[in-house]
Amino acid sequence: MRISLAELFPCKLDSEAERLIEEFGRMVEWWIKKAQELPRTLSYQEFRKRFYREWKEEWMDWNTQHAHTSSMLAYSLTRAYKPPSMREKPEKLKLRMPIALIHYWAVRLEDGGLTIPTKNGREAYVKLEPRSRHQQKLLSQTEKGLWKIGQVTLTPKWAIISFVREVNLTEERHPEIEELLT
């Protein structure tokens, strides 16, 4: 069975991480404009496939995982928007806060922080500032391979990180999980 935990960490961003958050907002707005041109019945896969090459030209040399997470967020936002009239377009639909969604394939935990590929082989570094012994233990266990990093939601001040682990419920004890609860 797979279990997951989500933790909110205060963080400090390097300049590349700040740039990633800024650029991610532009990516989402770009995808929103593309989504508004299409019928609402189009599936996410068809939507992404239709504009993926164009995204790659627009954000040449950026890690393509950012195409997937920004398109998914834009698609979800446009599908959740309910205009008063179905003929009305959501002209002002945009992110209200600076964030970046980071796919689990594109993030590593190193030296107490997150390393995220951005553009041209560069990497952003996000220094995590655990607020409790519990969070310190969780990071330590993750660095030892007991947990895996899931999706990360990154803001200028906070990182929301999901931690994922497979567990055999037929075992009586799970010492690493019990350690987190003490």
The helix fraction, in percent, is 25-40%
Radius of gyration: 19 Å
Mean pLDDT: 89
Helical run tally: 5
* Widest sheet, order of strands: 2-6-7-1-5-4-3
- How is the main sheet built? 7 strands, antiparallel
In terms of DSSP E residues, the strand content is 15-25%
Unreliable parts: none
Total DSSP E strands: 7
Quaternary state, please? single chain
End-to-end CA span:
22 Å
Shape: globular
Q: How would you classify the helix and strand content by structural class?
A: alpha+beta
The sequence of SSEs as H and E is EHHHEEEEHEEH
Word description of this protein:
The structure is a single chain. With 182 residues, this protein is of the alpha+beta class. The chain has helices at residues 15-36, 44-58, 65-80, 133-143, 175-181; strands spanning 2-13, 100-102, 108-110, 113-117, 123-128, 148-154, 158-166. It has a seven-stranded antiparallel β-sheet with strand order 2-6-7-1-5-4-3. Strand 4 (113-117) and strand 5 (123-128) form a beta hairpin. The radius of gyration is 19 Å and the shape is globular. The model has no long low-confidence stretch (mean pLDDT 89).
